[in-house]
């Protein structure tokens, strides 16, 4: 039993690491590790239990709760939690000190995720290309209106961000942290984890629970019936959202060394010199390679 728990902890850590960094999604990691279908079924069971609780059906809630495979879910969640807590402070520090380099790393990770998501398509038709193009262009254009990260998010924004991020986490192809980055909430949530801001974390957690309860069954239903169209839309979303991750002039728009200074994260420019180009470019290739390596390892079912 211990080897199975240890393997599940490792899977959870990989999923958590994927989701705390705006790159390959935890859903994709679960897919290539061979646990995605069971994860979706378990999430659905949890959502049904929450639904029973919200309707004050305590007996039904307990029945649904005990039906969940906790030997599968508990170590998985523990691994995700360890990854998020251990990596949050490291990433936040690097985002402040080396924003362009981190943007390059994220750019490579998401670029690799586009290829991973493309490989998940079970069919390729003209309509899928149209969906990718339309969503990609629209996302690129809409993100041009973003002025920068949100430094003092409202409670409603924290709840909404949690709901959207958790839905992205269980979708293959796009990470929850990438959604937070698009919303300008990535630095705020990362800072709350690092600084243990309980109220903010509670609001994000409430949003995540509500998001799972409301959307997990719908997401599962849509993926079962319209998988290729959903994946095409996600590919377009990631391609268009690369605008946020373009390293120059100021990385991903995270707060600079001066905590009161907000940098515009959607301005596009060329590197001012060769030195400014080399670091982000190398890390972009590293990020791309990490995604490809993770996918290859997971496809062999090494756990």
Give a description of the structure:
This protein is mainly alpha-helical and 303 residues long. It has one domain. Helix content is 76%, strand content 0%. It has twelve helices and no strands. It has helices spanning 2-20, 26-32, 36-54, 58-67, 70-97, 99-120, 126-143, 155-169, 176-183, 186-195, 198-245, 274-299. Helix 1 (2-20) packs antiparallel against helix 2 (26-32) and helix 3 (36-54) runs antiparallel to helix 4 (58-67). The radius of gyration is 19 Å and the shape is globular. Mean pLDDT is 77; it is low at 254-263.
State the separation between the terminal residues, measured CA to CA.
14 Å
**Strand residues, percent:** under 5%
Mean pLDDT: 77
Tally of separate helices? 12
> Helical content, roughly?
over 70%
Low-confidence stretches: 254-263
- Counting helices, strands and paired strands, the structural category is mainly alpha
SSE order and pairing:
Blueprint: H1 2-20, H2 26-32, H3 36-54, H4 58-67, H5 70-97, H6 99-120, H7 126-143, H8 155-169, H9 176-183, H10 186-195, H11 198-245, H12 274-299
Task: Please provide a brief summary of the model.
Helix content is 76%, strand content 0%. It is mainly α. The chain has one domain (2-299).
Keywords, please?
303 residues, mainly alpha, 76% helix, globular
